[in-house]
């Protein structure tokens, strides 16, 4: 039994506008499964759920982002210094703005999307040469080792590295983006505006998977979601995530 990461879920006042931004940023297309949801996914005959692709779902909410930095964000991959510079300029033309999260003098650039969700445009790195436009989904945490244990058991992704400061997982197929946990000062103080959605494999029982996650340390989360086909949980450090029903 295992679950697979299939979406990065982002909250937005205007899901359509933020969805269009991310589609342009990633070179992907947009669709909508219903009012208030914009789905951003690869083009060219893509069918969700893909075995390894992690898509972006932008979901409308009435609350704007607070000034608190998101504890989950996307890192975008580049192939050269020229590509990095071109991508940064193009993103700013689309409405991205520079963001200061205390990064100091680093070779990557931190930006925020039109509603303030932070993300990074990385300098070229060999490790991300084959990930596609999303190099990694990055989550701030207190204890990367504990996060590696939980998320390694929760998903079927392979643990590539774990230290006191950093944990890295990736699809067992060795393709697509990485999932990274970074040791970061401070603790979670507001609900995450960006979270991961997990999906059971065909034939697996969602209720049994949710029970397994609870046994691993996940906690039920009531966001007022009511009777919906997904289950909202938090991991042992309080990061929200959802287990989706079958499509």
From TrEMBL:
PROSITE patterns: VOC. Residues 133-246 form the VOC domain. InterPro entries: Glyas_Bleomycin-R_OHBP_Dase (IPR029068), Glyoxalase_6 (IPR041581), VOC_core (IPR037523). This is VOC domain-containing protein. It comes from Streptomyces violarus.
